[in-house]
Amino acid sequence: MNATTLAEKIAHFKYCTSLTQYQRRQTVEVQIGEVPLGAHHPIRVQSMTTVDTMDTEGSVAQAIRMIEAGCEYVRITAPSLKEAQNLENIKKELRRQGYHTPLVADIHFTPNAAELAARIVEKVRINPGNYVDKKTL
Question: CATH classification of 45-136 is 3.40.630.30, yes or no?
Fold first, then answer.
């Protein structure tokens, strides 16, 4: 297959209008806390904490460093119900210290933790493929 044919095949996909020029796709606006995402808004800066989520003090300290470095969203993992519940303590302490950056719970494999986190933080990030019931495969 020659390069022109490959380029023509790739170019017909909506996500790739050109192999040589960048073009951002139009998206809808989504409000995450007070920081909108998508549409005409700039690409947002986010990062994820590496501290154990049960370490409230460490999580807060790391989140503050991230925010002061320019993060517009702070992602925190919550793999189980106990971590999801502790998101409330982390959020309360950040707000007490004057930080209002939206928090995003990063959750995999635990739907009940996602439901709990959704009541606490501004956004829950999941991979729906992780919620497949293995018994039905």
Answer: no
